[in-house]
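[job 0412] stage=complex_fold ligand=iron/sulfur cluster status=START
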Amino acid sequence: MRQRLLDIYQALFDCFGPQHWWPGETPLEILVGAVLTQNTNWSNVSRAIDNLRRAGLLSLDALVHLPTPLLAEQIRPSGYYNLKAVRLQNLLHHIAASAGSVEGYFDRRPTASLREELLAIKGIGPETADSILLYAGNKPTFVVDAYTHRILNRHGLVADESDYHELQALFLDHLEPDVTLFNEYHALIVRTAKEFCRKSNPACDACPLKGF
Ligand code: SF4
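[job 0412] stage=complex_fold status=DONE, emitting structure tokens
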């Protein structure tokens, strides 16, 4: 399995090259993006983050103290903005109270403990928590999503009913805990699903995973 996963990675990397994820200038910005990207596309998230940047609000202190309705207005382009404003502030309040800074938060505890803490915050599910840990915290966890399931399932590597934990375990159990590899691998899977492995009519003939 290990070799198969590495061969898939290599085929995708050879085809697409580095994906330069996650788009964000600081760990805080990446973390904000990880919450705002729930149920929307990145261009909408990008517009919301641009609003925050223009308003001088891209700091932990500013975001924690901003009244929730004003935060919601700033992030309106990301959709579900009232809900996301609450979720984002839940997360940022937790980080501010427990560490005082985003960087300090990631430095202070093992990855498994941080993951438990993040999952205990209302509105932070496994995909968001793992995205935060991997892309903002440089922690060696693997992010999986519906795209991951679709591709692995179509290649017979996971069952139809596999859940998040089973999908993630496939990578964590067979690959070294390598932040660079995990970062790139997830990004390449997303790229493959968007360009070739669509929900209906997958373009297998042109796909780098044809033959796998
Ligand atoms: S498009 Fe076809 S070959 Fe490519 S990942 Fe999907 S099922 Fe596999």
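The pocket of iron/sulfur cluster is lined by residues 151, 154-155, 192, 196-197, 202-204, 207, 209-210 (CB under 6 Å).
[job 0412] exit 0
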